Amino acid sequence: MSAISTNQLPAAYCGKDQLTALSTVKSLSPPANARWAILVPESQAIRISLAGGSPGTPTAADMLIAVGQPVEITTSLADVRVLEAAASAKVNVWYFG
Known about the structure:
The chain is an all-beta fold. The protein contains no helices and 8 strands. The chain has strands at residues 13-19, 26-27, 36-41, 46-49, 63-65, 71-73, 81-84, 91-96. Strands 1-8-3-6 form a 4-stranded antiparallel sheet, with no helix packed on it. The radius of gyration is 12 Å and the shape is globular. 25% of the residues are buried.
């Protein structure tokens, strides 16, 4: 299974979250039954790492995600790290099981 895909997975909605204050690296806080998530940057682009650990700097993360671009995360949610690419970024997260 690819890390980010467009697979149509069976979905059971588990909850939502909004990550703010992304000038420092943040982890996801999925509900216990969540298996995958959709992330959508709201106000600025974000950078994400899928390998766990800190991306270190905004330029060291795995991927740059543009505002409004939904990203489906099907890897271990515990390994996802989020960092802003520009000041005042926030990201909406929906969890599915």
